Amino acid sequence: MNNPFICPISKPDTEKDIYDDAERRLANRNSGTLLETLALDITPSGAHYLLTHFDTPIIDSNKHKLYFEGAFENPFALDMDQIRGLPEVTMPVTLECSGNGRAHASPRAYSMPWGYEAVGTSEWTGTPLAPLIAQANPKEDVIDISFTGVDFGYDAGVGHYFGRSLTISQLEKLDVLLVHSMNGQPLLPQHGAPLRIVVPGWYGMASVKWLNKIEALTEKYEGFQQIKTYRFRQNPEDEGRPVTSLKVKSLMVPPGVPDWLSRDRCVKSGNVTIMGKAWSGSGHKITKVEFGIDGHWKDAQVIGRTGKYAWTAWQYIWNAEPGEHILQCRATDETGETQPIDPPFDLGGFGNNAIQSIKVFVQARDQI
Ligand SMILES: Nc1nc2c(c(=O)[nH]1)N[C@H]1C(S)=C(S)[C@@H](COP(=O)(O)O)O[C@H]1N2
Ligand SMILES: [Mo]
């Protein structure tokens, strides 16, 4: 028996607000950012969201090597000491899982049921990848460069190492970083220790963790995580469009205090400072953030961005009047892209950048 998962279970239809054991197992492993940490420019490492398909490999960094192989003129390997000795860059980058928001789309795709919380910003430290690719020197007919982690597992009956690819021309435009540290500390095991890439401005799936192989390919890369998933599809026959750069999006720190189970909020009347973050893909600037109160939109104050590839802080002083309210936020970037009110349909539940809505009950100050 080589592959016991050759006939995988088929994905059942989903029902709104009802989650089965497989979805709950995924949700327990892949924790989300605490939305209250959106008040900070940098997400504390322990509160950064996690998305891991298989198991977290436990790697001895003293033995770990990165191999440049395949159709390079000058293939070589580097150990971690050599990588740490290369020119060092620290970049704040916002990572967001492309499945973020999946649970709010209807029908919900059967997978990791993210609400709003699969996003975070870290200071990533490492060395730019481009000079290393140049040193390895791809042969003339190379079209794709693949990035493979040491984590192996099965999906839809296919056993594979988690791997992704970028074309030579994508690599020229993207400031890909080979990363060994996060927020001033060596990478935590679950975030890719000892080595990962970070692809700024793209959804998280491109930022391969536990990286040990960079391969130059003269044919199109056909790894499972490139071809079978992370594609926008309308139906199962659809070949789909690859998921690439982040769509414009914004979130707010939920104001006031929550009810334990419903997570609805209670706020005191009067001036309430609403804080949040907004971001977009490919280094595009956020030009406008609006704050919605029961469907009436006002301009929020755009404070400033944490970095070219990191989110932008915004705030709005809301004069909260007693009663029940729906609060929302909506960002627009420099290309004019903005967030839809309703989640766009996608078969895999990818790229849902619909606006966030939070229900709050405002109590008159003298009633509390
Ligand atoms: N090797 C490997 N790299 C991976 C993954 C994985 O499962 N294995 N998950 C990807 C996905 S889908 C996302 S969103 C990001 C999440 O990074 P984080 O867990 O550090 O937040 O890692 C990406 N890199
Ligand atoms: Mo992801």
TrEMBL record:
Domain Moybdenum cofactor oxidoreductase dimerisation residue range list: 244-360
Q: Which UniProt keywords apply?
A: Metal-binding, Molybdenum, Oxidoreductase
User: What are its E.C. numbers?
Assistant: 1.7.1.1
Q: Which domain of life is it from?
A: Bacteria
Essential cofactor(s)? Mo-molybdopterin
- Transmembrane segments annotated in the record for this chain: none
The Swiss-Prot or TrEMBL record annotates one GO molecular function as:
nitrate reductase (NADH) activity
BP terms from Gene Ontology: sulfur compound metabolic process
Q: Where is the Oxidoreductase molybdopterin-binding domain?
A: 53-224
Protein's UniProt name: Nitrate reductase (NADH)
Which species does the entry assign this protein to?
Puniceispirillum marinum (strain IMCC1322)
